[in-house]
Design a protein that fits this description.
Elements lengths: L1 H24 L3 E10 L5 E4 L11 E6 L2 E2 L8 E4 L11 E9 L5 E2 L12 E7 L4 E7 L6 E8 L2 E9 L7 E6 L5 E10 L5 E3 L3 E5 L6 E4 L4 E13 L5 E11 L6 E7 L2 E7 L1
Antiparallel strand pairs: 1-6, 2-5, 2-7, 3-4, 3-6, 8-9, 9-12, 10-11, 10-13, 13-14, 13-15, 16-17, 17-18, 17-19, 19-20
Length: 272
């Protein structure tokens, strides 16, 4: 019985030694970076670093759609070449970057797989009632269409419609709120990197009566003659309040000079 117990203890010790040896032979795993999106005819660039142990580099494996790439990752910086995989524009792509403990790589262009604003507006019209309609082709991914209206001497975002993201013809519509007199509208799309694409501008002359306003000192509010979008600015040009309605509460604002943009124009007033 004593001999059997001794042998068992020795086997356990050997097992522990074996597991430790196996552990130290394996790469120290820390984490994974996953980039998922659509092929946009762009490659991905990665800044690498020396591993924490001082031997080798941080990244030890890169896969594209599950296949290990042949890209040379043993350098301070490397490129993940997607052009060699036979992708077509808009194909699904999943990039997995595996790295060791104590370090972390940095992807220089993480938006490389994000949809780009590639649409072409083949038709854009607006009805007398303010219904904006447009048709597009050549969308390469789902991005929102931002509806913009030119008023107060600038383009103002007034709504969004999510794009369908397909290259075939797509049809969209959005109900706008025209201001009195001349109106201009357009649609734009923006990528995560800030790239923009704009449609042509459409115009509409509205017969809506101009909106007027008065400052009611008793209630400390602006009262409009009809419902309108508005923005309130201080003397430094900073927006301090915006909204929609037939009044704006100013009770929490100090006495001062202000500017209010509403309907199709901007006017100055004094809160006393």
């Amino acid at each position: 019985m004593g001999t059997s117990k001794t042998n068992w203890e020795e086997m356990k010790k050997l097992g522990v030694v074996f597991m430790l040896a196996l552990f130290y032979c394996m790469p120290a795993l820390a984490g994974t970076i996953v980039l998922e999106g659509k092929y946009q005819q762009k490659n991905v660039y990665v800044i690498n670093s020396i591993a924490e142990a001082g031997v080798g580099f941080c990244v030890y494996e890169v896969t594209v759609n599950g296949d290990v790439t042949s890209d040379e990752v043993n350098s301070n910086a490397f490129e993940i070449d997607l052009s060699v995989h036979g992708f077509k524009l808009g194909d699904n792509v999943i990039i997995t970057i595996k790295y060791k403990d104590g370090c972390e790589p940095r992807v220089l262009n993480p938006g490389a797989l994000e949809p780009q604003p590639t649409f072409e507006a083949t038709d854009i019209v607006i009805s007398s009632g303010g219904l904006l309609e447009w048709k597009t082709v050549n969308e390469q991914g789902k991005l929102p269409f931002i509806v913009q209206q030119f008023k107060w001497n600038k383009w103002v975002n007034v709504g969004e419609v999510m794009g369908k993201g397909t290259s075939t013809q797509n049809t969209y519509s959005f109900q706008t709120t025209p201001v009195s007199g001349e109106n201009k509208f357009r649609i734009i799309q923006k990528s995560q990197e800030g790239k923009e694409k704009k449609s042509a501008t459409v115009e509409l002359t509205s017969d809506r009566a101009p909106v007027t306003f008065v400052y009611n000192k008793k209630t400390s509010s602006i009262e409009f003659s009809s419902e309108t979008n508005y923005e309130l600015y201080n003397v430094y040009g900073q927006i301090i309040k915006r909204g929609f309605g037939n009044s704006a509460d100013l009770s929490n604002l100090p006495k001062s000079e202000y500017y209010v943009s509403f309907d199709s124009g901007t006017q100055k007033f004094m809160k006393k």
